[in-house]
Amino acid sequence: MKISLLQQMYKDVLVGIPLAKESHHYTSLLNLCVEQSPERDESCNRMHLPSTNGGIRSRQDQDTDMSDVPTTDDTSNSFGSMNSSFCPREVMLLQLTLIKMMVAKAQSQEIEFNMRQKYCEIFVLLLKEAKIDSKLICLLGSYDQLLSHMASKSLASLVYFQLKEENTLNVTWLTFSLKTLSGFPVNTHVAECLWTLTSIIKDILKDKVLSKAGILKKLLAPLDAVLEGFYNSILFHHFDSHHYTSPYSEAANNLISFIDLLEALLASRIELELPLRCQRVLFLKVSYVLNLISSSIHYLIKKLFIMLLKKCILCKSESGSLFLQNPSLYEDMLALSSAILQVVNLTWLNEIPLSGKASYFGGSEAPPGDDTQGGSDQTVLRALSLVVLKALEFKFQNSATEAEIKGDFQSFMSQLLIFWRSHLKSSPQSHPVVHHCEWLSLIFIEQDDDMWEAAKALLLIYLKFDRLRHDAADNLSQKEEETWNFLTHASGYNPHCIFLFFLEKIAFDSTVLLDFLISSETCFLEYLVRYLKLLRKDWHQFVDVCNNFDTKHGTFQSISSVKPPHQEKQSCMTDESLQIACCEPEPQTLISLADSHNYLVFTTEQGDNEVAESNQSNSLVCTDSTSLLGSLQSLVNYDSSEDSELESDGKECLVNTKQVPLNKEVETRIRETGCSYTGDKRNTLKSEVLPLKQKESNTSSCLTCMASSDNIIPLRIMLYKCTKCLEELQKAISRLQRRNLFPYNPSALLKLLSHIEKISKNMNPQ
């Protein structure tokens, strides 16, 4: 009889039909039949109810068993065919589902006021007369994990309801929580208590109307001290114990549940002007977590803690301007960054295995032919890398002098570069990394938000170093500038290199940049504005880096593989890291310009990064790299006649042709442009951009990359591609702005892009 009434009540609540009978009637229907076992005290009572699976099961089983809970559609459609003889377990699951559903509807503004009033009356009776909170707490200890999970959700909903509607904290639940958490590790049944508290915090954070600060303080203040004590207790364990080697053990379940709570506390801290100690403990005592990550605990738990660290280190980014107004957050980030860098300096990164099995639909085994097995976990690799980079950013942003941070930064970056090299999985199609600045795009290219956070961190570090250098000396010598440039490349944080490598990875597609600017999920806008401001005053360095890109597939010798002339004996990096930085020799294609016959002669030979000398007065070095040829295709697929103006008749270069007549105008242009060299065998290209002139053809294009004599100049392909990409981006933004389709005011960004375009045209007249 009771089940049929519950079914009818469920259907009425589901479709929004007013409950016509007295509130006491519905209270009696929702009242749980819970009998406490005399074997245990009230706080950790374990109920013995019928269960289809029985025993204590894993968290994974809980998620699977959620299919047993009557869902909205399934329940309403199947009530007609149900047998009225339900077992007690099914009745209780339906009661718990109804309680949670009614709490949600009682707080919804879409429900009529009279109906919400009725639900509130029922809850008051359930709490004061039926003592539903005590019964739900008893049900938390059930051996039936589905009942325990549903009881936790229902209890959290009722506690949250009282906080919001009555501005009071449920004393029964508070007493239970204090006793359970303070009793650990003697009492190990803490997961259910942690679930409930986590659910309450999440419910508060999801509420868009509620004044979160006051209600969070009312909830967490009584638990503040005991939560910090619990943090110390659960993370100070000896995690080499066999209890933590399986993610399905009770000990591991407790730890995973605590990670969820720490994440909720982290999300809630920005709501309070003065956060509580329990919201700061992860920052101030992060060494416990760092030690745990390097222990022999199960890989899943390590991964969860690493992802939590990532959220902590990004807390400053998410809080925005609040960071400057919140001294406690500043203090916490400084403590967090210092602790992370301290363990990184002690080879902590190398102690973390990143070879966890990948997950697949239907199981954990790789399908036949899959080659990802045995590779590093790229998600964790990115997270760890970002944690270290953001810690470096914050630590060094708060340093006063260059000497204070210079040595430490180079040491940290050296370790990070070695860490990347040892874990980045290379495919047969990938080319060997020959420049340290390329690592960033290789590591983060599959995760946009992380990539731009990492790029922004290195850009801010670069700007900090640059500012400190100029503060220390007004006029820097050429050797000092050369040393500075060398160090930025050797440590992998030259901003121009990083930006160009990224553009190369996306084939200079301006629509990709536009997507990043429109998206609210990345910090690309902030990064791009900062970088364009740097580019505006550092244009010559940018041009030099573009020249190096043009020569990297030919006779280019990596900057990071050669020390500056005045630093032959001084090493700022470890020998191992310097060896990593060295370029590998690549196939080279040399183009000789026979001046007397006006012909381009093409030959191919293997080299070891030496510039080939020619008896001709004019010779050009060109590459046959397939990757560089492929990237050129976007330059010749013109979309309009306006773009096609760059073409001219009779100015075509074909790689597969032995001799090609050279137009007199082109020859004259090459001669006039020229190339000068400076400094001890380290030639710096200084030239003007030549437009790419090429007609559509089924043959490969010739990419002229580097000059090998004093009066011959390379075509600056990389510089042309980059500036063209930025111009296209500027046009796209302007077009969207004119149509009022851009999501924010891009005037400042357009001004910067316009300035860069003017600099490019003034420095490189066409």
Automatic annotation (TrEMBL):
Pfam families given in the database record: LINES_C (PF14695), LINES_N (PF14694)
Annotated region (Disordered), positions in chain: 43-76
Boundaries of every Protein Lines N-terminal domain copy: 196-546
Q: Where are the transmembrane segments?
A: none
Q: What InterPro entries does the database record attribute to this sequence?
A: Lines_C, LINES_N, Protein_Lines
Domain Protein Lines C-terminal residue range list: 724-757
Entry's PANTHER family?
A: PROTEIN LINES HOMOLOG 1, WINS1, 2 PROTEIN
The name this protein goes by in its record: Protein Lines
Q: Which organism is it from?
A: Fulmarus glacialis
